[in-house]
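Annex B. Sample input.
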Amino acid sequence: MSDFSGIWIPLITPFADGAVDHAALRALVNRYADAGVAGLVALGTTGEPATLDAAEQNAVLATILDAVQAAAGASPQRRALPVLVGVSGNHTASMRERIAQLNRLPIAGMLIAAPYYTRPAQEGIVAHFSALADASAHPVVLYDIPQRTGVRLELDTLLTLAAHPRIQAIKDCAGSLDTTLALIRDGRLQVLAGNDLEIFTTVCAGGSGAIAASAHWRPERFVALYRALTEGRLEEGRRIFHALAPQIQLAFAEPNPAPIKALLAGSGWVRNELRLPMTRASEALTERLAALGEAR
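Annex B, continued. Sample output.
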C-alpha cells in the first residue's frame, strides 16, 4: 500500500522555442522538493501530455524521475519525492501496453481517468479500470473529471473499484460533495481534492490531501494549509486558505495550465509557452497574475 496523502503538484511541462525545456523542468522539481510537497504528478492534464509525442512523454518522465533522485541525494534530510504518472486514453488494450512499460519504472503509481469521448456505460468503466489495474504492478489512482472525459464515475462504480487491491486513491474533480463524503466514510480510497477550491472542505472532512495545480505557486503555503488542518489548527488553516483563495481562483480563470505558466514565467521559472491548441493566458489575466506575484 502506498500513501497518497498531502499536497501533490501535477507538474507543467515547460517549453522553450517549441521544445521541452528539461532544465526548467529540473529546476521546478528542485523547487517543490524544497517546499515539502508530498509528491509530484508527471504527465497529468496540467502537463499537456496530449501535445507530447511518445518519445517526449518518456523523456519528460525520465527527467522528473532523475531530478527527484538528484534532489534527494543533495540533502540527507530530503527524501525522494514519489511520482505519479498520468495514463490517459480510450483504448484499453493500448493503455495496458503503456502500463506494461511503466511497470519497469520506480514510480509511486498511475493516475488514470475514465475513457474520454467514448462515454462508456458504468459497466464498461468498471471493466476498463479493472483491466488496467490488473495489468499494473503499481498502485492506481482514479481520476474522476467528467468535464474532460464526458462521463463521471458514479458512486456505485467507485465503491466497486475500491475493492480492487491496486486501486488505492481518487483524484476527485466531479464536484459532488455527496460522493466525496461517501468515499471518505467508506474509507477504502484515499480521497484527494482535484478542484483546488475544495482542498479545505475535503481535508476537513477527512480527505487525504490534494493534487493541486495552483500549488505551483507558493507551494509552501499549501503545505502549511494541509499541516494546519491535519494537526487540528483550524483557525490557522482557515486564514491560510482564505489568503490562497484569490490565487486559486486566478489559476483557473482561464484554461489550465495557461495561468500557471504565466505566473511562473513572471518570476523567471519557465517561458510562457504552450502548445496548440492551448494558448497563453490573456493579457488581462496576465496582468492580474503579475499583481498577485508582486503582492507575495
